[in-house]
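User: Can you predict the 3D structure for this chain?
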Amino acid sequence: MSAPDGIARSTTVVSSATLASRIFGLIREQTFAFIFGAGFATDAFVAAFRIPNLLRDLFAEGALSAAFVPVFTESLTRQGKSEAFRLANRLTSILIVSLAALVLLGIIATPGLVHLIAPGFNAVPGKAEVTTVMARIMFPFLLLVSMAAVAMSMLNSLRRFAVPALAPVLFNLGMIAAGYLLCPFFNPPIVGMALGVLLGGLGQWGVQALSLRREGYAFRFEPAFADPGVRRILRLMAPAVVGLASTQLAIFVNTQIASVLPQGSVSYLNFSYRLMYFPLGIFGVAVATVTLPIVSSYAAQKDTAGILSTAASSLKLIIFLTIPSIVCLCLASRPMISVLYQHGRFTAADTEHTARALVFYALGLLAYSSVRVVAPIFYAVGDTKTPAAASVLAVAVNIALCLALKNPLGYRGLALATAISVTVNLVLLIILLSRRVGRLDFRDLVQAFLKVLACSLISAAALLGARALWPWAPDASLPAKIANLAILLAAAAGSYLLAAALLKVKELSLLFGLVRKRSRR
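Assistant: Here is the predicted structure, written as structure tokens:
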């Protein structure tokens, strides 16, 4: 099977599973919007969850996965399952000891951390205190999600993509259940959502642990810092942690700035980012998830041509899937947010504010998705310093833009700064990739981009035409809003697919071919 076929086939599996996860993620966000709206309670939860989440990106799904997958894949390729599983046991044992200590320290230091990350909360009576309580409850989530990240990395390296992609469904179910079953027993009710995070994290790890057992893996506690594989992972993690730390610094600064803006700003940014993350998770993360173990396998064989071919195929698939998503997110932002979130305490004004932030976030969707494909290529060839350096520079741009745009644009300026900085990150990575690994076929990529852009402009015209024929009515009933949104999205998707077929976009025929093969089985 060719590289494009392999990537596309595996991507359809991951995308399908991720779609289910993102749907439940949207239901989770709807639960927040319905029960708590966009204000005091949601602001407090978002800030509280951000504290363990910052460490999660550093030590779990970020640096750990990036460093672990290439080493585990190489061990799997050259030494077999038993040695690869032994490496996983030794790393997991070290994680349990070190992260348990970090969780304990974090719980003790939580009041100071809350003051650092959201200083504006002190101006609202009780807001900082509630944030502190929830952050302490959620700190053990760091250990659970790190275990889940190791399990995910192992399964992906074994080319078992579906279960890791479905695992976040358990996380979302835990939080949805907490919203309706636990929150009524707490005062304030939002505290119940913090317990939902722990329940969800336990489920996310547990379902992957069961899948690993079916692969013959059994955990044994055997910490071994001297193991060559473990030491190599830790060496690879160090610069990746620096790069991700700079990214978390940007998130930290964004939260600080948003906390002193009008109440609700933290929530508007969170809801809009989550909605932007829907296509990012389905397409960008899915393609990146499939690409890393394939590229790592080529790297273990010293096959540079295979690495570059895989990268190019992945990027073209990203372009095909994300540019039309940007059109829909920008031109149908208000209908989407109103249908999904405008219930209970989430008002029409909240919809308007969230939509404004979403448009700016969406401008960075292509870059977000592409960075998730390009950066791991450096990790696969044992270079974590280059993406870390690019990330540090991009973060400096982000912070500077946040400070420059917060007054003229408010919370929207923070979303725009994020989109611009991630684009800077992508440009740097592509330039450095040519020097570090090899030159991509830019002519082919540009041709693919221009074709998709033309199709997307046709899609935008169709969506605007549908919107003119059936204007959006903010005060309409929910069924009418759903029908309106369905027509807008159908017009956009139908015209895009038709244009792609007429222009003979390769990625369309590739995906349709895979769908036909599956339907015959």
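The longest helix spans residues 81-117. The mean pLDDT is 81.
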